[in-house]
Request: fold
Amino acid sequence: MDIMFFIFLSSGLFLGWSLGANDAANIFGTAVGSRMLKFRTAALIASVFIILGAVYAGSGASQTLGKLGTVNALPGAFMVALAAAVSIYWMSASGLPVSTSQAIVGAIIGWNLYSGKPTDISTFNVIASTWIICPVLSAVFAFFTYFAVRGLLRHAHIHLLRQDCYVRIGLIIIAAFGGYALGANNIANVMGVFVESSPFHDVNYHGFLLNGTQILFLIGALAICIGVLTYSHKTIRTIGNSLMSITPAVAWIVVFSQSLVLFLFASASLEHFLSARGLPTLPLVPVSSSQAVIGAILGVGIAKGGRNINWTILGKIGIGWIATPLIAALLCFISLFFLENVFNQTVYLP
Reply:
């Protein structure tokens, strides 16, 4: 297999590492921030299910992202992923949970502009609409789940120690579900631009079948897991307690709501089920887990009367969301120029 592919794939692995470092907070940051789970326990559980979600349910969202712009040269894919990764790294180093989805979309648009390829406006509109739908939907889920959980706890008369045990078990389960949803939805951000150039072939080992795309997604998922385990502490502190004071029950509500949103935007089976019955469907789009978890926290905050929300931190996060795609697009455009003209690499094909 061509060693150059793995050299160029390194930017995708860096992007995966950056995504794991940034988005782990969205899976279990509230659980760790509320001191209900140890970091290492939550990280290991989430990592296992990130891999499962990426390998077995990641193809749907990647197809939609590919329609935005088909990056048809390996060096170009390298630079698209690198521009997105650098953007995410800068934001993560500042402790801001930004959108990896917005970063990769911005970088792809930068590649489209440089290569003279048209950006599919209808696909962009679908993706951009989820930047609003995603946090709003997560806030709605969290709002109603908060009242449901509060009513259950009031009427069940569960002893505090038993309640603590139930919440801890619930957080473990939801960390697994959140990891699966993140892997299924966001692996497209990490490896989607490399699908066209992937050299991997199907593997069948004693009836265990992985196609070439699944192998590529497996490699990307491992990079995400390394990011989760090595560099996610700082962002977890922002999500865990800086935006709003988090109780264990609220931690469960927040992670449940954002995980459900990611799952809905990644489930091809659900889309087919609804479509076959003439019901409205959600697009299969890699959405931002950061936006989903912020929406969920705000949903709980609104349910509690809008108290205890740190609006200064929220404003900083909002600025990060606006800046990320712009920075990624600009970085990608400039870097493609140097890669083509200084290093003589073919960054796009006619």
Notes: The CA atoms of residues 249 and 337 lie 50 Å apart. The longest helix spans residues 121-156. The chain is about 75% helix and 0% strand.
